């Protein structure tokens, strides 16, 4: 059981602050996901937490103890990497037992605990194999078993699923989540995949250029994105963002005219999630269908209003009630589900 506190963490490479004054608490027993585009400083933050990288400024505390200058093994953290990082010459059992043997645990006890960890991740049948005789998913299970065998204070995951195929990623992410919850171990998990982040996080932290754009529960970030960056990044497809002018309770630009609260005036960015855009067939509509994709139970429909493209997600059951499935070129009208708009300052991108 551990709380991790990062305070004022800064890291500079070649004159650029890749982590820029980051303050973040990982509450005891929770799973925090750092998400953001490639290069935003996620791995650097994780590696500083692990002690694999030294911060230029700021402190790292684990359970109130200042570990800023401590080596990784003094921090009682266990890491799972994207590339598994297994020892090729050791068997699965040897790999899992390695941290125990390293810590001086006797051979018999280490073997027994390695087996128990293998059972937890469903690879007890593979204990005598070498890593090269395993699939990617099996190798990552070995790495996860190796991380949990010592029951560390903190789990650190650095893009653990990025080398696996889509189906396995979905399977393994919920297993990681289940294990983390069962063991109650505080965890920090880095991914560029917002869907993965949304599905497993207690606390979701969006990083943009080394700074926290927003933190909260996945639901909070989805419902009330703090700025246009978060609105565009969280959700797939991302939020439609349209720059225009608000006046007397109406947002307008290039043939679009949507209601907004009367108090909002001036240059604003109007955000609307694809599922909150109501598209309906209308022979007099001023929008046209540009592209239609059926994605399982819903359609992704790109409509064009003038030269502007907007993305709508429409339930297949809704489209079933239309005279026909929309085709490129069809005329439609486009409205926003009342109250579902997100309004941002056009200059700063901050939520209004
Ligand atoms: P992310 O994990 O979000 O993709 P990283 O934390 O790995 O991002 O990297 C952040 C930025 O710092 C990137 O621009 C990367 O190129 C740079 N960077 C990371 N490690 C080093 C290093 N050892 N030397 C120089 N630049 C680095």
Automatic annotation (TrEMBL):
Is this entry keyworded Nucleus? Answer: no
Q: Which InterPro entries match?
A: AAA+_ATPase, ABC_transporter-like_ATP-bd, ABC_transporter-like_CS, ABC_transpr_MalK/UgpC-like, Mo/tungstate-bd_C_term_dom, NA-bd_OB-fold, P-loop_NTPase, Transp-assoc_OB_typ2
Looking at the UniProt record for this protein, which Gene Ontology cellular component terms does it annotate, in alphabetical order? ATP-binding cassette (ABC) transporter complex, substrate-binding subunit-containing
Keywords associated with the record = ATP-binding, Cell membrane, Membrane, Nucleotide-binding, Translocase, Transport
Residue span(s) of domain ABC transporter: 4-234
> What GO MF annotations does this protein's record show?
ABC-type transporter activity; ATP binding; ATP hydrolysis activity
Record's bilayer topology term: Peripheral membrane protein
Q: Which reaction does it catalyse?
A: alpha,alpha-trehalose(out) + ATP + H2O = alpha,alpha-trehalose(in) + ADP + phosphate + H(+)
Please give the Gene3D superfamilies that the UniProt record associates with this protein: 2.40.50.100, Nucleic acid-binding proteins (2.40.50.140), P-loop containing nucleotide triphosphate hydrolases (3.40.50.300)
The task this protein performs is described as: Part of the ABC transporter complex LpqY-SugA-SugB-SugC, which is highly specific for uptake of trehalose. Involved in the recycling of extracellular trehalose released from trehalose-containing molecules synthesized by M.tuberculosis. Trehalose uptake is essential for virulence. Responsible for energy coupling to the transport system.
Name of the featured protein: Trehalose import ATP-binding protein SugC
Q: Which organism is it from?
A: Mycolicibacterium fluoranthenivorans
């Amino acid at each position: 059981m551990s709380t991790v506190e990062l305070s004022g963490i800064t890291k500079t490479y070649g004159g650029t602050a890749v982590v820029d004054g980051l303050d973040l608490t990982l509450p005891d027993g929770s799973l925090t996901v750092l998400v953001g585009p490639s290069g935003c400083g996620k791995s650097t933050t994780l590696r500083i937490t692990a002690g694999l990288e030294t911060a230029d400024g700021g402190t790292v505390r684990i359970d109130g103890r200042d570990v800023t200058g401590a080596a990784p093994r003094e921090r009682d953290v266990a890491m799972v990497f994207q590339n598994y990082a297994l020892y090729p010459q050791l068997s699965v059992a040897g790999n899992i037992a390695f941290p125990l043997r390293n810590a001086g645990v006797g051979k018999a006890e280490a073997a027994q605990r390695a087996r128990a960890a293998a059972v937890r991740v469903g690879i007890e049948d593979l204990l005598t194999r070498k890593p090269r005789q395993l699939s990617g998913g099996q190798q990552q299970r070995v790495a996860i078993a190796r991380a949990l065998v010592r029951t560390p204070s903190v789990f650190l995951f650095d893009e653990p699923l990025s080398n696996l195929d889509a189906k396995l990623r979905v399977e393994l992410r919920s297993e990681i989540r289940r294990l983390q919850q069962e063991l109650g171990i505080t965890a920090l998990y880095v991914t560029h995949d917002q869907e993965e982040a949304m599905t497993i996080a207690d606390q979701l932290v969006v990083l943009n250029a080394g700074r926290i754009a927003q933190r909260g529960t996945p639901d909070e970030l989805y419902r009330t994105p703090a700025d246009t960056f978060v609105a565009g990044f969280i959700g797939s497809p991302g939020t439609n963002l349209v720059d225009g002018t608000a006046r007397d309770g109406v947002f307008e630009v290039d043939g679009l005219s949507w209601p907004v609260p009367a108090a909002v005036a001036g240059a604003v960015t109007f955000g609307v999630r694809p599922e909150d855009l109501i598209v309906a067939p209308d022979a007099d509509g001023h929008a046209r269908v540009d592209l239609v994709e059926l994605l399982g139970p819903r359609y992704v429909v790109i409509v064009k209003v003038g030269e502007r493209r907007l993305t709508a997600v429409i339930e297949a059951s809704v489209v079933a009630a239309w005279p026909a499935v929309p085709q490129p070129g069809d005329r439609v009208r486009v409205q926003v589900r009342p109250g579902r708009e997100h309004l941002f300052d056009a200059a700063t991108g901050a939520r209004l």
